[in-house]
């Protein structure tokens, strides 16, 4: 599984489309992180990021906030989305998700 986290200033970026990089975490069948890689996204335009992350074989995006259109495009591509994540260290967010202890709140994006 590959989990993508939008990152700005080394923390989960609260707005999916405004991040500096995406940190990709490759996770094995034992829920162990086996690879971490940062990718610089293409310029933000509607529909670009879901397509790009799909091409990178991402299975799940964990974000603070994401617009409904992006969520729909991810769903069409078979990529799961989890919103309302805290703006914490990306690795800690992924580890909490894998341990089923990640606490999420509201989607901080309203478009």
Architecture overview:
The chain is an alpha/beta fold and 111 residues long. The protein is built from three helices and six strands. Helix 1 packs parallel to helix 2. It starts with a strand and ends in a 13-residue tail after the last helix. The model has no long low-confidence stretch (mean pLDDT 91).
Helicity, in percent? 10-25%
- Tell me, rounded to a whole number, the average pLDDT: 91
The largest sheet is:
6 strands, mixed
- From the helix content, strand content and strand pairing, which structural class follows? alpha/beta
CATH architecture call: 2-Layer Sandwich
* Terminal residue distance: 28 Å
Number of domains: 1
- What is the overall silhouette? globular
CATH class identity: Alpha Beta
The proportion of residues in beta strands is 25-35%
Distinct helical segment count: 3
Which stretches are poorly predicted, pLDDT < 50 over at least 5 residues? none
Alpha carbon gyration radius? 13 Å
- Superfamily (CATH H level) name: Dinitrogenase iron-molybdenum cofactor biosynthesis domain
**CATH level 3 topology:** Nucleotidyltransferase, domain 5
Oligomerization state: single chain
Order of helices and strands: EEEEHEHEH
Per DSSP E runs of 2 or more residues, the count of β-strands stands at: 6
Give a brief description.
With 111 residues, this protein is α/β, with parallel strands linked by helices.
Helices and strands in order:
Layout (H helix, E strand, L loop, with lengths): L1 E7 L2 E2 L8 E7 L5 E7 L8 H8 L4 E3 L5 H9 L3 E3 L7 H9 L13
Parallel strand pairs: 1-5, 5-6
Antiparallel strand pairs: 1-2, 1-3, 3-4
Helix pairs in contact: 1-2
